[in-house]
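Hello forum,

I keep getting stuck at the same step: I have a sequence, I want structure tokens, and every attempt I make locally crashes halfway through. Rather than fight my setup again tonight, could one of you with a working pipeline run this one for me? It's a single chain of 491 residues.
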Amino acid sequence: MNRPVDPNDEIIKLAAACRHDPDRWTVAAYDWGEGDLTGMTGPRKWQRDINRQIRDHLADPVKRFTPLRIAVASGHGIGKSAEMGMLSNWAMSCFADCKIVITANTRPQMQTKTAPEVGLWFRRSLTGHWFDVQAQSIKSRDPARGDTWRMDFVTWSEHNTEAFAGLHNRGKIIILLFDEASAIADKVWEVAEGALTDEETVIIWVAFGNPTRNTGRFRECFRKFKHRWVTRHIDSRTVEGTNKPYLQSIVDDAGGEDSDVAKYRVRGQFPSQSPMQFISETDVSAAQRRHLRPEQYNFAPKIIGVDPAWTGEDPLEIVLRQGLMCKKLASLPRNDNDVEVANLIARFEDEEKADAVFVDAGYGTGIVSAGRTMGRSWRLVWFSGKPNDPGYFNKRAEMWGTVKRWLKEGGAIDPNDQTLFDELIAPETVPRLDGKILLESKQDMKLRGVPSPNRADALALTFAEPVAKKAMHGGNLNGVLQEKYDPHAGL
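Reply #2:
Ran it on my machine without issues. Output:
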């Protein structure tokens, strides 16, 4: 007697055939052109490009167990959540005991957009009845495998990264998906890297996002770490099914193709300056490309800025600036021996014949005290102190404002100093009702996963007060002048 045909048999055969081919799966697993997919003949071109990239990676036995990392920067409305849904359904359908984690930048983004859209594509699939789709997870309906064959929707937090730290599935498959990746903290990216260590395991990490920030780990997928990531920039106007007249109106109203709004909302390009970013990447990049002749700066006073370490993970930074030129003198682990640090600064002061030394007062009072016992007249600078310019909220913001002008007016930085480059473009402004310029604190930067800008703060300290060469002012101690500060003088 013939066994009744189980409709699951054909689906299982298809899933087995598509095990290494998400492109074939997404074409076959949905009733394209029917029901709520009426008018759609299949996945969009860019979605198929990503799926084929994965297919080709898995087809190569040599590369198959090497983590595949894909970063997609795009404008609005291209169907990122749909691609995450189709890709997740392929992996869950074609690999037993598959593990997937999807994270987004905020809980509302996850609960109202990402998770519902991903769940919709599971319910549309041929294998929709295989899975229990819930608001925070999608699991196999096999009661014995619900904990090992699952997808979890997790809102990221740099203080609660257990979901990423425990993402291991040796010998099977792991999918890690980031939505709105520009806003995900660097710390989360770092912890997620720990999921890439299982051997003999298929590991796929895809980060999607509107490129709203030109700092952070998502940005570095396209720059510093480009050699490790497959990258795509997608202009929303080139994608099927998008409202092209509306998208073009965004470009026109923003001032054209090269405006930052057009770049991140439509073109899928990173802005030259993020909305709240204080110093633009354009200005810092220009400073990296400048090559100064000694006569362009050697007439100016030499000023040393010292930013002591705030925490054990922060370095002590010492920077020298002379006019338009600056250079790092030292970057050292935190040292609580103030006398030892003071001796180091004194050595640099003598070697460079510096005209002034400014030290951040936050953790530098002991260093300056030690220096004074050595006959040094170093100056403490309180970042929270009162600025000379009433347009700034505090002294730190004022000094950074002068750094910003210095860069625009010809300041040059070491082209090989990536740390200073990253730190200069990192701080964002804090909106205030009174309109005064205030930069976010080091602590707040760390909360959003951005390292403390210690070296950039040391550079800012060189603008704390007006300085002239000692020889020009009768050996005036530390070269500090008391006349009104002209930010353009000596630059």
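The two ends are 94 Å apart (CA to CA). If your local run keeps crashing, start a new thread with the error log.
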